[in-house]
């Protein structure tokens, strides 16, 4: 300690300690749930976001070009596959439209409130990734849509494969996504996602943490008592929409293992996320509520 | 002559843009979970060795704060504090305007190690990670160190040449 004093001089050490205290105070104040950002932060985020967009556009185009070249060989097979898929989709779409109209008329008959209607429908807003923070402890991704485009804090974000994260902050023209790989029980600002298995109505569990070592989402609180409502290995897990935080039907992942929980009353499922978390290009912000009339943003 | 400083700041900003918006699209996908290419920090270490520790500390705080604000997810301040502090500390020990390549590379390794360890410590104190230190060491601290070392090797010659052209005004600054 005395060595340190002699090296720094007591005045410098004093300044250092004050700076340390100030920074810890800053970290403590900005930790956890904040109501919006201050205007300097918004200004910096918007201006840097704009320049990042300029830099990012040629870069992603170039990397896309290289990818296209490497995938040139498989184009014919893929085309064949996609054609079959499109034919199937066209058939499914007719069924879907039919079911949708029936469903809407039933909702009207049952006198659903506006809030309930809002929860049961959603639409997607296309967003381009402009920058990625590769910090392992605090993974975030910035996208090029913001509050002016109707994006708000707490909305879910998906890639084509599945859910990627949750909007954590927005400015006018950009917003930041907190990835679901940073979900944690101890973290001060984390979410709990209510989830269910597709095709098995009545099943329920809560996804609220991510196991970094095994690379699995952890879904807890599953009651596998009723033999008709059992979540099993290889089930596809989607958000259930109950609780009203996230709309229903966003794909989270596939169950890889079922274990007993710590206290033995419920089961815990380890879910392999379908999103890859490495290929960042285009994402979709899930906006609750029916589609606005003019745009058609569905993927 | 004085323009070099402004160009240096601009160059750091360009590096900041590159590490967030260009590199993730060109890195092999298997590397992405293991690397946080903090290229700005490597250049700030060059400043602290070949120029002055106060300049490096100011740059570290400014660009760390920029990183914190732009990628705000958990809290503001970890990067600003760790980058500024590490640059100052290393400048205190290794302030050698004529430092050869091996010394500079060991400064980069040491700085990278201290930066990542301090970040790990801060995030652990505020309960953002539950991993053990040895896991973090293997998963990203050592890969980071190697990546930054290679980057430092690449930019050593051009940066050194620019710094040698800059007039050193150490006496004037020290007398004040």
Fill in the keyword field for this structure.
heterodimer, A: 299 residues, alpha+beta, Thrombin, subunit H, 2 domains, six-stranded antiparallel β-barrel, globular, B: 176 residues, disordered C terminus
Question: How would you explain this protein's 3D organization?
Answer:
The complex is a heterodimer of chains A (299) and B (176). Chain A is of the alpha+beta class. Chain A folds into 2 domains: 57-111; 124-288, Rod shape-determining protein MreC, domain 2 (Thrombin, subunit H). Chain A has helices at 2-8, 10-29, 39-70, 75-109, 114-120; strands at residues 122-133, 140-143, 156-158, 163-170, 175-179, 193-197, 205-211, 216-222, 236-239, 251-260, 267-273, 282-288. In chain A, a hairpin with a 7-residue loop joins β6 (193-197) and β7 (205-211). Chain B has a single domain, classed as Arp2/3 complex 21 kDa subunit ARPC3 (Orthogonal Bundle), CATH 1.10.1760. The radius of gyration of chain B is 16 Å and the shape is globular. Chain B has 8 helices and no strands. At the A-B interface, α2, α3 and β1 of A face α1, α2, α4, α5 and α6 of B.
Structure summarized in a few sentences:
The complex is a heterodimer of chains A (299) and B (176). The longest helix of chain A is centred in the N-terminal third of the chain and has 35 residues, at 75-109.
Q: Give the biggest beta sheet of chain B.
A: none
**What portion of residues of chain B belong to β-strands?**
under 5%
Oligomer: heterodimer
Do you know the CATH topology of chain B?
Arp2/3 complex 21 kDa subunit ARPC3
Which second-level CATH architecture of chain B applies? Orthogonal Bundle
Q: If helices are DSSP runs of H or I spanning 4 or more residues, what is the number of helices of chain A?
A: 5
Number of domains of chain A: 2
Individual helix count of chain B: 8
């Amino acid at each position: 300690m005395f060595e340190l004093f002699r090296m720094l001089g007591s005045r410098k050490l004093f300044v250092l300690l004050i700076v340390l205290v100030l920074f810890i105070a800053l970290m403590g104040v900005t930790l956890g749930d904040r109501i919006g950002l201050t205007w300097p932060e918004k200004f910096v985020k918007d201006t840097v976001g704009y320049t990042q967009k300029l830099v990012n556009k040629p870069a992603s185009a170039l990397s896309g070009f290289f990818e296209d070249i490497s995938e040139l060989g498989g184009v014919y097979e893929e085309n064949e596959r996609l054609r079959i898929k499109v034919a199937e989709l066209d058939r499914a779409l007719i069924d879907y439209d039919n079911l949708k109209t029936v469903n809407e008329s039933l909702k009207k008959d049952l006198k659903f409130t506006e809030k309930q209607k809002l929860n049961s429908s959603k639409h997607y807003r296309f967003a381009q990734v402009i920058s990625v923070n590769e910090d392992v402890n605090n993974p975030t991704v910035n996208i090029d849509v913001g509050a002016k485009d109707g994006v708000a804090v707490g909305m879910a974000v998906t890639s084509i494969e599945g859910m990627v994260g949750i909007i954590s902050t927005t400015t006018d023209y950009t917003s930041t996504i907190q990835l679901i790989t940073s979900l944690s029980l101890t973290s001060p600002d984390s979410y709990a996602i209510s989830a269910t298995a597709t095709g098995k109505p009545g099943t329920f569990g809560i996804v609220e943490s991510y196991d970094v070592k095994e690379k699995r989402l952890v879904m807890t609180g599953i009651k596998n008592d009723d033999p008709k409502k059992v979540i099993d290995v290889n089930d596809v897990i989607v958000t259930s929409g109950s609780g009203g935080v996230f709309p229903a039907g966003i794909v989270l992942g596939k169950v890889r293992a079922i274990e007993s929980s710590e206290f033995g009353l419920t089961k815990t499922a380890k879910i392999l996320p379908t999103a890859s978390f490495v290929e960042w290009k285009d994402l979709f912000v899930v906006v609750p509520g029916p589609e606005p009339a003019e745009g058609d943003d569905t993927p | 002559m004085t323009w070099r400083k402004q160009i240096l700041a601009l160059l750091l900003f360009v590096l900041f843009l590159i590490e967030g918006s260009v590199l993730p699209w060109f890195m092999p996908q298997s590397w992405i979970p293991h690397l946080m290419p903090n290229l700005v920090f490597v250049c700030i270490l060059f400043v602290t060795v070949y120029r002055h520790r106060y300049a490096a500390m100011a740059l570290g705080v400014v660009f760390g704060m920029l990183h914190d604000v732009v990628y705000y997810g958990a809290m503001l301040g970890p990067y600003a504090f760790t980058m500024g502090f590490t640059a100052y500390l290393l400048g205190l020990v290794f302030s050698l305007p004529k430092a050869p390549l091996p010394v500079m590379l060991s400064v980069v390794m040491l700085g990278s190690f201290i930066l990542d360890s301090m970040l790990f410590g801060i995030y652990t104190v505020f309960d953002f990670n539950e991993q053990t230190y040895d896991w973090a060491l293997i998963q990203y601290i050592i890969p980071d160190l190697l990546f930054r070392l290679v980057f430092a090797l690449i930019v050593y010659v051009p940066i050194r040449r620019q710094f040698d052209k800059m007039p050193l005004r150490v006496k004037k600054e020290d007398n004040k």
